[in-house]
Design brief:
- By secondary structure, this protein is mainly alpha-helical.
- It has three domains: 73 residues, no CATH class; 262 residues, no CATH class; 120 residues, no CATH class.
- A hairpin with a 2-residue loop joins strand 4 and strand 5.
- Helix 11 packs across helix 21, helix 11 packs parallel to helix 22 and helix 13 runs parallel beside helix 15.
- The longest helix is centred in the N-terminal third of the chain and has 32 residues.
- The termini are far apart.
C-alpha cells in the first residue's frame, strides 16, 4: 500500500525541482509568446504585467501538469481500469437514453412538441433584444478583458466583472464573427435558451413531466432571465451550470454511473469558473444530496454516494485551483473576493432583510401581471409543507435552498445585488409549480387537470401570455441594473461628426463604458474624460446625459468651470432615445491662447522629422 504513495511523493518532488529550475529565459519567452499570439490588444493602454508574477503563474501551471502526469503514470493501471469502466457506463447510458427517448416520444409526443414550441418562443423573445445598444457592464467586460489577449483576460481579476468562462467564450466568438453587440451576447444568449429545457429536465426528474413543462413555460417567459440572456455577462451560464449540477445530483441518487459524476464535476467547474458565487448553488446541491442520504431517499448505497461526492468534488477543486491560479498570482482574485465585506451591524441587516426579499421577489416576477408574485410565494411555501402529496423527494429542493441561505446570512450578512440570485429563479418557479400541484391534490381538484392535452395547453398559454406581458412592459429594454444607455450608438455617431480637435466629452458612470465601446468600435479618437484638467484645457465640452438615471448636465462637471474658467452654461444641441447631448463653450480668450501656447511645442515636436546629425 505504501509503495505507490512513496513513488508518488518522489515523482512530485522531482517535478517540483525540475519546474523550479526551468531557465528563466524559457519562461519569459513563453510569456511573451502567449501574450502576442493568443489574442490582440485594443488601442487603450494595457494594464502592466509584472513579469515575475507571470513567471510564477507558468511555473505553477507546469508544476500542476507535472504532478498530474506523475500521478497518472504511477496509478496507470487503476486509471486504465477506470477508463474501461467509464466506457461501459457511457455505452449503458446511451442505450438507456435511446430506449427512454423512443418510448417517451411515442407516449408523450404532444408534450415534447409543446416543449419545443416553448423553447422556440423563449428564443424569439430573447432575439428581439439581442442587438440592443450595449450596456455598461458588458461593455466594460469586453473592453477590459475579452478584447485583450487571453493571457491577460484570464489572469486579471481586479474587478468581479471578469466572469472568466464568459470572458473566454466572448473572446472566441468575437475572433470568429467580429465585434458586434449580438456576438458579445452570444454565450449568454445560448445559455439562456438552454436554461428553459434544462428546467424541464430537472423538474421532470424531481416530480413529473407536467410540473417540468409548466416550470419551463414560466422560466422561458421570465423577464429577469430574458434580460441576462441578452446581456454579455456570466449569469445565464451560472444558471445553466446550476441546473446541470442539480440534474447530476438527482441522477446520482438513482444510479452509480460514472458519467453522472463526471457531469457533476464539469458543472461545478464551469459554474465556479464563471462566477465564484457558484459555491452557493454547490452548497444547495450538496445539502440536498446529504438530506437524501440521511433520509435514505436514494437507490445507491449511501457510503458509495459519499465516496463519489467527496472524490469528484476534490477533483473539481484541483481543476479550479489550476484554472484560477493565474488570477490568484497576477490579478488580485483573493483581494477582490475578500473585499466583499459583510455588514457589521447584523441586527440592522436582518431588520432590512424582509424589505430586500420583497424587492427581490418583485424582481423575479417583473413585467408579469400584478399580484402573481403572491401566487408564486404561496405555491412555493406549499411545496414545502405539502411535499408528501407529490411523488418526489422526501425533502423538497426548496428546503436545501432555505438552509443554505439562512446559514449564509448568519455567518456572512451580506445581501448581494439582485442579479447575483438569478440562479434561484428556475428553482423558485419550479417549486411554486410543484406547490400548486400539491395544493390541487390537497383540495381534490387534480383530476380535472390530469390530461396531457390540458397540461400542454395550459403551459403553452402561460408561455404566450407571460411573454406578451414582458414584451409590452418593456422592462428588459429599460432596466437600469447594469448601465443601460439606449442612445449610445446614436450619440457616438453624433460625436464622431461634431467633435473637433481640442474638444472633450464627458458622461456619468452609467454611460461611459458604453460610449467608449462605440467610439473605439468606430475608430473615433475623441477624448472621453472625467478629469477636470482635461476639461479646463478644452475648447468645448460635450455633456452626455442619460435620462434613464434622471441626470442633469450640471451634475457632470465642476461648478468652477462656470464661475472661473470661462465656460458657458450647458446648451442642449441634440436629443436621442433617452439621451441628450449638451455643449459648453469656452469664452475665455486668454485661457484658449495659453492652451495653444502649451500644446504648440508638443505638436511641433511630433511633426518635426528626425535628423541624423549627431
Amino acid at each position: 500500500m505504501l509503495k505507490p504513495a512513496f513513488f508518488c511523493i518522489i515523482a512530485i518532488s522531482g517535478a517540483a525541482y525540475s519546474v523550479v529550475n526551468i531557465p528563466m529565459e524559457w519562461i519569459v519567452a513563453v510569456v511573451y509568446l502567449t501574450v502576442s499570439l493568443l489574442g490582440y490588444t485594443p488601442e487603450a493602454a494595457e494594464r502592466s504585467i509584472d513579469l515575475s508574477d507571470a513567471v510564477l503563474v507558468l511555473r505553477g501551471l507546469f508544476f500542476l501538469f507535472a504532478v498530474f502526469l506523475a500521478v497518472v503514470m504511477i496509478y496507470r493501471n487503476k486509471f486504465i481500469r477506470y477508463l474501461m469502466a467509464l466506457g461501459a457506463d457511457i455505452t449503458q447510458a446511451r442505450s438507456v437514453c435511446c430506449r427512454f427517448a423512443s418510448a417517451e416520444y411515442q407516449t408523450n409526443k404532444l408534450e415534447y412538441v409543446v416543449l419545443l414550441m416553448i423553447v422556440l418562443l423563449g428564443a424569439m423573445v430573447r432575439a428581439i433584444y439581442l442587438n440592443d445598444p450595449i450596456r455598461g457592464d458588458e461593455a466594460y467586460t469586453f473592453s477590459q478583458f475579452s478584447n485583450r489577449s487571453l493571457f491577460l483576460g484570464l489572469s486579471q481579476y481586479y474587478t468581479v466583472n471578469n466572469h472568466l468562462l464568459n470572458t473566454f467564450l466572448i473572446h472566441l466568438f468575437v475572433a470568429l464573427f467580429g465585434n458586434e453587440e449580438w456576438v458579445i451576447r452570444l454565450p449568454a444568449f445560448v445559455a439562456g435558451i438552454c436554461v428553459v429545457p434544462a428546467t424541464y429536465v430537472v423538474y421532470r426528474c424531481l416530480y413529473n413531466s407536467s410540473i417540468g413543462l409548466i416550470a419551463a413555460a414560466l422560466v422561458g417567459s421570465s423577464s429577469a432571465l430574458i434580460e441576462f440572456s441578452v446581456n454579455g455577462r456570466g449569469y445565464s451560464l451560472l444558471c445553466l451550470s446550476f441546473l446541470v449540477l442539480l440534474w447530476a445530483v438527482i441522477l446520482a441518487r438513482r444510479t452509480d454511473n460514472r458519467l453522472v459524476w463526471i457531469t457533476y464535476t464539469l458543472a461545478v467547474v464551469a459554474g465556479c469558473y464563471t462566477l465564484p458565487i457558484m459555491v452557493i448553488p454547490c452548497g444547495m446541491a450538496g445539502v440536498f444530496l446529504l438530506m437524501s442520504i440521511v433520509l435514505k431517499d436514494s437507490q445507491v448505497p449511501q457510503l458509495r454516494i459519499m465516496r463519489h461526492f467527496v472524490g469528484y468534488s476534490g477533483i473539481a477543486g484541483v481543476l479550479l485551483l489550476a484554472m484560477y491560479w493565474p488570477t490568484i498570482i497576477m490579478g488580485g482574485f483573493v483581494e477582490e473576493i475578500a473585499g466583499w465585506t459583510p455588514s457589521r451591524d447584523k441586527w440592522e441587516f436582518f431588520r432590512q432583510l424582509p424589505g430586500r426579499m420583497s424587492l427581490l421577489g418583485a424582481h423575479w416576477t417583473r413585467d408579469w401581471p400584478e399580484g402573481i408574485e403572491y401566487v408564486v410565494f404561496v405555491s412555493a411555501i406549499g411545496s414545502v409543507f405539502l411535499s408528501g402529496k407529490l411523488r418526489g423527494p422526501k425533502t423538497p429542493l426548496l428546503v436545501s435552498v432555505i438552509v443554505v441561505v439562512v446559514v449564509l446570512f448568519l455567518f456572512r450578512p451580506l445581501f448581494y445585488a439582485e442579479r447575483f440570485w438569478l440562479f434561484l429563479i428556475p428553482i423558485i418557479l419550479g417549486e411554486s409549480v410543484a406547490g400548486a400541484a400539491a395544493i390541487l391534490i390537497k383540495l381534490k381538484l387534480h383530476r380535472r387537470f390530469r390530461t396531457q392535452k390540458y397540461i400542454s395547453g395550459c403551459a403553452m398559454l402561460l408561455a404566450v401570455m407571460l411573454s406578451l406581458s414582458v414584451l409590452q412592459a418593456e422592462g428588459v429594454r429599460y432596466s437600469t441594473d447594469t448601465g443601460t444607455f439606449l442612445g449610445g450608438r446614436a450619440v457616438a455617431n453624433y460625436l464622431a461628426r461634431a467633435m473637433r480637435a481640442g474638444d472633450v466629452a464627458t458622461s456619468s458612470n452609467y454611460s461611459s463604458a458604453n460610449l467608449r465601446y462605440y467610439l473605439d468600435k468606430n475608430q473615433v479618437t475623441a477624448t472621453l474624460t472625467w478629469d477636470y484638467e482635461d476639461m479646463v484645457k478644452s475648447s468645448r465640452i460635450f455633456l452626455i446625459v442619460n435620462q434613464l438615471y434622471h441626470e442633469l448636465p450640471e451634475d457632470l462637471v465642476e461648478d468652477i468651470l462656470f464661475s472661473k474658467d470661462g465656460f458657458s452654461q450647458p446648451v442642449k444641441i441634440a436629443t436621442f432615445e433617452a439621451s441628450d447631448v449638451y455643449v459648453m463653450k469656452s469664452s475665455n480668450a486668454e485661457i484658449n491662447a495659453a492652451r495653444r501656447r502649451e500644446f504648440t511645442p508638443r505638436i511641433e515636436k511630433l511633426i518635426t522629422p528626425p535628423t541624423n546629425d549627431k
